[in-house]
Specification:
The protein has one domain. Helix content is 43%, strand content 0%. Helix 3 packs parallel to helix 4. By secondary structure, it is an all-alpha fold. The protein has 4 helices and no strands.
Amino acid sequence: MARQGRVLAYEVMNVNNAIRNLIREAQPQQIYSVIQTGRAESMVTMNDSLKALCAAGTHRRGDRSESFAPVEGTVRLLETQVRQ
């Protein structure tokens, strides 16, 4: 029997000096890169969160919320997880 319900996909950004500088310099387009490289500081991208849900079997490609606008590469990531 398939479980139904909601699961949480999340993104975590810890405000460090790099994030502060990007905000101060009005360069928000680079914040995602800092989150990607900030794993040692417990930062998590939405793609990483979705990948973990796919690996755990709690999320499939067609399960995304209609209010979620995927960032570039999310669809490709989910397709990769389905093939594995």
